[in-house]
Amino acid sequence: MTIPTRYPIGTLGEPWDEDARNQWRARQERQRGYDADIVSRIRALAEHYDEIAYGQLDYGDDAYALYALRSRAFDPKLPAALVTGGVHGYETSGVMGVLDFLETRAARYAGKVNLLAVPCVSPWAYERVSRWNHDAIDPNRSFHANSPAREAAALMALVGTTQAGFLLHIDLHETTDSDEREFRPALAARDGKAFEPGEVPDGFYLVDDSANPQPAFQQAVIAAVAQVTHIAPPDAKGEIIGSPIVAQGVIAYPLAELGLCTSITGARYTTITEVYPDSPRTTPEECVRAQVAALCAGLDYAIAHP
């Protein structure tokens, strides 16, 4: 993997101005279709779930309707579970994992939990295989009051309308070689900082909430996923992406403090999944299966330990 010494946009040491953001935006070419890949599958699932259009993004000439799917027999006496993918649009197995779960496994949870599923939070970024949205903002650092990311604001508004308490929120992500090759160098350039290369973990790991740790829940998910794909080992410092491991395949962040998606429900059980699709030890299909396994294990544990 080749790591750039300097990102080709902006002035070294200075945060981006609007001209630099426009230069970055011009580099983001559409590579795949939100309607064809995702909306078509959501429409097919609407035979079994309530389809909710919870917002629209208008970015120049591009408009994207935002969709969620909700259990049709939504029982306010049952707890709710939120599953999200595509907060970072380029993280493909997160999007496909939510859709595969709904198509193949979700029916078994009918009558046990109210499901609210958002397969693709950031469709503009999905089409361009990008981490950021159209405004060069990372939605997954923007889940807070007065969010500058329209994707984050729309999802928070949707969650606020749900008439049930949330027991669980699982947010599906990937860590890829492009993090080091493109996205972290771009972040450093955007903010006028020096880029310091890191290490991409080879395998699956989870991010717990350091303000609400749930170690048994996290380990139940890890145990299930280990039957599908390999778990990321710590690096020589005992860390994964710069954070100390708290258990096998688990690190912890202060979710609300960082404005991460899994902070928005107040659920007892939350986790962020991370797979490494660029590993020679896995395949894109296996990564999707790992995401589905994580969702099922998380739901099974939460329902058994409400």
From TrEMBL:
Origin superkingdom: Bacteria
Cofactor(s) the protein needs: Zn(2+)
CDD domains: M14_REP34-like
Pfam families for this protein: AstE_AspA_cat
Keywords in alphabetical order: Hydrolase, Metal-binding, Zinc
Domain Peptidase M14: residue ranges: 30-306
Protein family: Belongs to the peptidase M14 family.
Protein name per the record: M14 family metallocarboxypeptidase
Organism: Sphingomonas naphthae
